[in-house]
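Severity: low
Component: inverse-folding endpoint
Summary: output formatting inconsistent between runs
Steps to reproduce: submit the following structure tokens with default settings.
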């Protein structure tokens, strides 16, 4: 994102973060579109974003999409817009018979998992949320090992331009660095 005119810095930070996670730079795509400004208060155009997402899914032959849920984990409008665009594609394609979906049959082979947004208390109780998450319904549950948690923290620290005080607290206390519950869309 280019919030605060930091687009180039944040792009490099994203590439560094992905490297820490073992994701090659060739698998990282940054979309810089004038109608999709990086702004936590701006909702993006669902159809435009849905088109861009679908093109990427088809071009890269992606069979699993992991996205935010309707709460965007933090209420960030851009995060919610991504969910809306993916949901738009899934709903649009599910209502069209496969033989009529000319070149857009990804609904038949691409699964979508959405990351569950939790309330503020659960969001910041770190590993203590594992028990709660195990007891609640979900389609998938990922519990990170201590090594994976440290790797995720190293990846987050690559985003130096975004590490404001509240994100420092996130690194210390967020359940998302330990446990993630997802559901199928």
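Observed output (run 2 of 3):
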């Amino acid at each position: 994102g280019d919030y605060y005119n930091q687009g180039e810095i944040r792009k490099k930070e994203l590439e560094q973060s992905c490297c820490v996670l073992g994701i090659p730079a060739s698998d990282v795509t940054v979309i810089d579109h004038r109608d999709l400004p990086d702004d936590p208060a701006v909702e993006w155009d669902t159809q435009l974003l849905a088109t861009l997402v679908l093109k990427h899914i088809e071009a890269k032959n992606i069979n699993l999409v992991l996205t935010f849920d309707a709460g965007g984990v933090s209420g960030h409008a851009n995060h919610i817009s991504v969910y809306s665009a993916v949901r738009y594609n899934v709903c649009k394609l599910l209502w069209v018979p496969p033989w009529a979906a000319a070149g857009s049959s990804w609904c038949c082979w691409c699964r979508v998992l959405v990351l569950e947004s939790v309330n503020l208390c659960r969001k910041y109780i770190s590993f203590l949320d594992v028990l709660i998450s195990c007891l609640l319904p979900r389609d998938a549950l990922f519990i990170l090992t201590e090594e994976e948690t440290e790797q995720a923290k190293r990846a987050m620290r690559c985003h130096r331009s975004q590490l404001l005080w509240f994100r420092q607290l996130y690194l210390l206390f967020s359940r998302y660095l330990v446990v993630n519950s997802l559901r199928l869309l």
